[in-house]
């Protein structure tokens, strides 16, 4: 079936995709993950199952987001540090505030 | 399908409850009611019967090879005392069940959920081939209870000691006495809160169940049924094999790509999954918050639409007490499976406004509870 997203939805998808890709690339590079960025799904959990990161990695993620997007995640903001998508939610919210 | 069997707990339960059949096992689905049970899991402790799990022990010199032929993840690197959570697939790549694999050394324990254990037993016997292994189906001889909640660790600390505080996610300990009965405790769970599964010989279900409930009095613990467990599972985005698991073609559609071990081969479903990984996945699962109604929960199979075009369908949906709104999972065309998009969900004559959102739907109290410092009594 041929489906087409509206222009505004496609813009939204493109913007989100760009941020998600940048986050995945940053995590793979910084944490030396054994996955390729495209092998990490957007809703992948960072800790526990999923990427199986630990508390030391969380500091690296915070530094990584600051370095890549110039945004500061507070150390106790555990709600942003749950999945790739929650990281992207935070990055997007900060970029919107700045712009 | 084999004959439905009754959870051994059903013969000894004093609490009023309803039952249902899960994975061919008749087990408790609700006790005091969803509201009280939900509150217990999210704020204190919920105690539940997981006897519907399939339980298998695989031993012998080829046990590792056989288990690795059965599951999608790689078990070879699993140390003694640890477990992994993975899937058993069918040849076409679809999911048969999810499974905790516990490494006991040369032997492995499998705790499965999502399919009749009789089917899983068949898959295991096929995988054994000519291998030198012994397979024991413990489904009806071993019971599993679960303790979930932000203070589940504290209840178990009272019963078996401070070593519970050091037990990490997917680690297990054996010979833990509860009510004088030796149990195995695996830290795991599908509610997003602290969770532990307690395995014990079936003849001791009454003793251990009552010991858990008695210790739970100080924590306002409640017996909780399967219904509220599936609600918490959805809120935290743990896969429900009876909903999104059954609706998807393979684990790739369910955001499980990182769970696929790409160095391992020759497991059931490998070829189909590998073929799927080389092409773009047609649909992907995504969370949906129903903003158009506080009460209307869409039916499974409801269409997800935008501007008259169908982009996917609902595969799981419940009312979320945490959000005060219905939530759902939808399998959506991959090009549209992104957070922050506005859709409508067809619900009878209505089109409910809905938005795609990040996993999980909730923020768990367990994220803020520190076992070394906090206590339910001082909360």
Give the topology.
The complex is a heterodimer of chains A (99) and B (379).
Chain A: H1 7-30, H2 55-69, H3 84-98
Helix pairs in contact in A: 1-2, 1-3
Chain B: E1 5-6, E2 18-22, E3 25-30, H1 34-43, E4 46-49, E5 54-59, H2 63-70, E6 83-89, E7 95-103, E8 108-113, H3 117-128, E9 134-137, E10 142-148, H4 152-160, H5 163-166, E11 172-178, E12 181-187, E13 195-201, H6 205-216, E14 222-224, H7 226-236, H8 244-247, H9 270-277, E15 283-290, E16 303-306, E17 309-320, E18 325-333, E19 342-347, E20 350-357
Parallel strand pairs in B: 1-3, 4-14
Antiparallel strand pairs in B: 2-3, 4-10, 5-8, 5-9, 6-7, 7-8, 10-13, 11-12, 12-13, 15-18, 15-20, 16-17, 16-19, 17-18, 19-20
Helix pairs in contact in B: 1-7, 2-3, 4-6
Distance between the termini of chain A: 38 Å
SS class of chain B: alpha+beta
- Report the principal-axis shape of chain B: globular
User: How large is the count of helical segments of chain A?
Assistant: 3
| First-last Cα distance of chain B | 47 Å
Observed structural traits:
heterodimer; A: 99 residues; mainly alpha; 55% helix; globular; B: 379 residues; alpha+beta; six-stranded mixed sheet; six-stranded antiparallel β-barrel; 20 strands
How would you briefly describe this protein structure?
Chain A is mainly α and 99 residues long. Chain A is 55% helix and 0% strand.
Would you write up a description of this structure?
The complex is a heterodimer of chains A (99) and B (379). The mean pLDDT of chain A is 93. Chain A contains three helices and no strands. Chain A is globular. Chain A has 99 residues and is an all-alpha fold. Chain B has 379 residues and is of the alpha+beta class. Helices cover 21% and strands 34% of the residues of chain B. Chain B has nine helices and 20 strands. In chain B, strands 11-12-13-10-4-14 form a six-stranded mixed sheet. A six-stranded antiparallel barrel of chain B has the order 15-18-17-16-19-20. At the A-B interface, helix 1 and helix 3 of A face strand 15 and strand 17 of B.
